[in-house]
Amino acid sequence: MQPIKKIPARDRILTSAHDLFYLYGIRATGIDRIIAESGVAKVTFYRHFPSKNDLIRAFLEYRHQRWISWFKGALERHGQDIHAIVPALAEWFHSEQFRGCAFINSVGELANELPEVCEITRHHKQHMIQVISELVPQSTHRDELINALAVAIDGAIIHAQYDTTPENALKAVDHIIAVLIP
Amino acid sequence: MQPIKKIPARDRILTSAHDLFYLYGIRATGIDRIIAESGVAKVTFYRHFPSKNDLIRAFLEYRHQRWISWFKGALERHGQDIHAIVPALAEWFHSEQFRGCAFINSVGELANELPEVCEITRHHKQHMIQVISELVPQSTHRDELINALAVAIDGAIIHAQYDTTPENALKAVDHIIAVLIP
DNA sequence: TTGCGGGTAGACAGATCTGTCTACCTGAGT
DNA sequence: ACTCAGGTAGACAGATCTGTCTACCCGCAA
């Protein structure tokens, strides 16, 4: 049994920050709480992340890696074609901790004070688009199709976040994909 | 010349809160700043809104009224049919103060602490759906069409918020509408 | 004239937030 | 045996946040 304490402080901070930021929001989560949750000393925290904004950037980078690799895996598990998108999203939307897209949430919360979150979000979504574009066969209007798909997926994420169930969001994506493919 | 001071305190508070909440986010905006901006005394503020949460609820209600009536007007100006949606959204997305959907933003920021924002958001979106459903002629699969449209519009709002220009978001909605109508 | 609804200015309490500082501990490699 | 990277506990400073309190003001209607 590997004790928890053997995990390096930086990693513990990052995973705690991830869970708290994602669940409660970034501004709602104080440094003290992250320190308590990760069981790290305050000095240690500030040695790794000189300011909260540095932690926010690291959190977004971490979230990006984590989400993209989960997404790729889910698509593969569901058949690695365009019809894998809906069941992959369904998995996410139904998961216990689902709270929408961490990037979209941080844009709404911070874009004015930390302008780079928009850029970070664009990179993240660009990467997501690149992953789904591998599922779409060569065709005319391929770019329009992918652009429309990206917008529909973001809309579905939002709907699943505020709706009582994610079913309508999933149906909408399903329907849009159906009418979109030639 | 009607001096500004003749506008009742409650209204001044509400419009200031609206502008600040929408631009900077709700948590990022302190009561003191709203008080300063609206030129009202602190006691007056707390007489009208006993707590910040009361103000948040009033803000969402106010925003709802204001946005819906703007939206209806914009759709009418653009021909009051399904093809009015894209130019109406274009107007909004290009406007100086555009910062996405106030409801979506507050869900991301507050849903955990103030659960009713999800419900308020559902009501708002329900109302939006009702407005656009008046543009859609009777047809088979009408409900699916409207549901898909609602998701696509929310996705476009998000995209327009973090993208450098709203053009791709608008193109996506345009494309989705085109393939959606029979 | 008197009463009152609605307003003003600003000090204050108490919590909480970010970030700094001092002083100490531990274990692995040389 | 020694060093040093990396860690710990927790007090403290200073800003900022929500919410309360006292004391005063003005215009209008009965």
Mean of the pLDDT scores of chain A?
95
The total of helices of chain A stands at: 9
The structure class of chain A reads mainly alpha
Strand content of chain A: under 5%
Shape of chain A: elongated
Q: Give me the Rg of chain A, rounded.
A: 18 Å
Can you name the CATH architecture of the largest domain in chain A? Orthogonal Bundle
Low-confidence stretches of chain A: 1-5
User: What's the count of strands of chain A?
Assistant: 0
Largest sheet of chain A: none
Here the CATH topology of the largest domain in chain A equals Tetracycline Repressor, domain 2
The multimeric state of the shown protein is homodimer
Q: How does this structure look, described?
A:
With 182 residues, chain A is mainly α. The first copy, chain A, folds into 2 domains: 1-50, Arc Repressor Mutant, subunit A (Orthogonal Bundle); 60-180, Tetracycline Repressor, domain 2 (Orthogonal Bundle), CATH 1.10.357. Chain A is built from 9 helices and no strands. Chain A has helices at residues 9-24, 31-38, 42-48, 52-77, 85-94, 102-110, 116-133, 142-162, 167-180. The first copy, chain A, is elongated, with a radius of gyration of 18 Å. Chains A and B meet through helix 6, helix 7, helix 8 and helix 9 of A and helix 6, helix 7, helix 8 and helix 9 of B. The first copy, chain A, binds a DNA duplex (30 and 30 nucleotides) through residues 8-9, 30-32, 40-44, 46-47, 50-52.
